[in-house]
């Protein structure tokens, strides 16, 4: 996404903060396909993804003023939007895990390499990109959740359906592997 488009989304959020429904419709039209695909890469349950998407945009409608107040000249609108969606997904997975009819072991979570991962590998340099590509998929998944999505250990644990200790050890193993590959 170009800087102009990101700035446009920030302007749309400022308009949404003033209850501009046309701006909300435009933001939804521009960002919902991208956001839906990104959520689907993290969760195979289409119903849950649809619920999270709806909850995300409801939150955007209600909280656009906080974005406009904190980041009045920022182009980080899509990052802000993704942060909301990722946290809503974690919350939804937690709720689903607490339901007695859905054991945590059967939660529909998928980890598929996405465009964000490929972009990171392509923009950080050939050496680091190759090191990231050489990581085991389970280590890349933890890095993606914690670094690209900005999730905490606990949120990553819920998202990936892993114990927190496993998330910590995989993050440590990934850092060690990257350090060794780059030295």
Provide an overview of this structure.
The structure is a single chain. With 183 residues, the chain is mainly α. The protein has 2 domains: 1-110, RNA polymerase sigma factor, region 2, helix turn helix motif (Rna Polymerase Sigma Factor, Chain: A, Orthogonal Bundle); 111-183, Orthogonal Bundle (Arc Repressor Mutant, subunit A). The chain is 77% helix and 0% strand. The chain contains 9 helices and no strands. Helix 3 packs across helix 4 (77-98), helix 4 (77-98) packs across helix 8 (153-160) and helix 8 (153-160) packs across helix 9 (164-182). The radius of gyration is 18 Å and the shape is globular. The relative contact order is 0.11. The model has no long low-confidence stretch (mean pLDDT 80).
Q: CATH class of the largest domain, please?
A: Mainly Alpha
- Give me the CATH fold name of the largest domain: Rna Polymerase Sigma Factor, Chain: A
Question: Helical percent range?
Answer: over 70%
> Given the structure, what is the number of helices?
9
How many domains? The number is 2
Low-confidence stretches: none
GO biological process, one term: DNA-templated transcription initiation
InterPro entries: RNA_pol_sigma-70-like (IPR039425), RNA_pol_sigma-70_dom (IPR014284), RNA_pol_sigma70_r2 (IPR007627), RNA_pol_sigma70_r4_t2 (IPR013249), RNA_pol_sigma_r2 (IPR013325), RNA_pol_sigma_r3/r4-like (IPR013324), WH-like_DNA-bd_sf (IPR036388)
Family: Belongs to the sigma-70 factor family. ECF subfamily.
GO molecular function: DNA binding; sigma factor activity
